[in-house]
Amino acid sequence: MKKILLFVFALSLSFGIKAQTSLTEAVDFQSIDDYGTEVHLFDILDRGQNVALYFFFSDAETSPYFDPNIAQAYHHFGDNQGDVYFVGVAPSDDSLTIANWRMEYDVDFPVINRISVGHDAHEICEDYGVIVFSTFVLIAPDRSITIDNIWPILDAQELIAEIEDNMVIDDNIAEVSDEGLGIYPNPASSVISIKSLASGNCDVSIFDMAGRCVKNIKIEDISNATINIEDLDKGVYFVDVNGKVEVLRIVVSCTRYANNFILVIKQDPTRTAM
Fold this sequence. Notes:
about 270 residues; five-stranded mixed sheet; 2 domains; Glutaredoxin; Immunoglobulin-like
């Protein structure tokens, strides 16, 4: 299969064929990405986010030129916490080759590979009629496909501009939860950011499952703060923000490429927006 697709890729270079999907409306899928996070396409669209699908091979000749630009766009749009949710679809790769690819090209957007649980990458390629790689597809919250053929992807800013011109903004998306707290990115590898409707000084404590305080930070402005988590091992943690109000589950990649843990965020219900 891979050799056939690589041959098609070579032909595309020779004859100027642009990668694209043949669809105008999204096909649903439900899978587990390489971070262990469930990716249910229609659930993501229904909460108002656009979805960017990047169909690729980790060892393709385009990877050094295209893939870092996808990663820059992923970060620009908020690491899947903003208006665009990025997912790589790699039909010839497994977890090991994706981990090596992450290290080589310094990319961290989630990927569905050929052995992913649920709909694997090969099935998604078939559903979307993708036979030329790399292909970048943008899906709007109403499930319409607004971009079917960004190719080549040689400049991150041009890619970002193209996405901004074609994405659909749902004004009902809140940057913070109903309880006034937002944590991102999800998953995270080194730093988490906190957005809160509250403001002012705050003590943030992180506890492990045994109840030991493993980190305590004084935050000057809790409305928009960042916390470095590189020193934490994988596992389950509780993060206390001035008391308890809401439990928020976040999958975090602590070793950048593989290990996952969960942060549970708690905030004081007595704190109000200023």
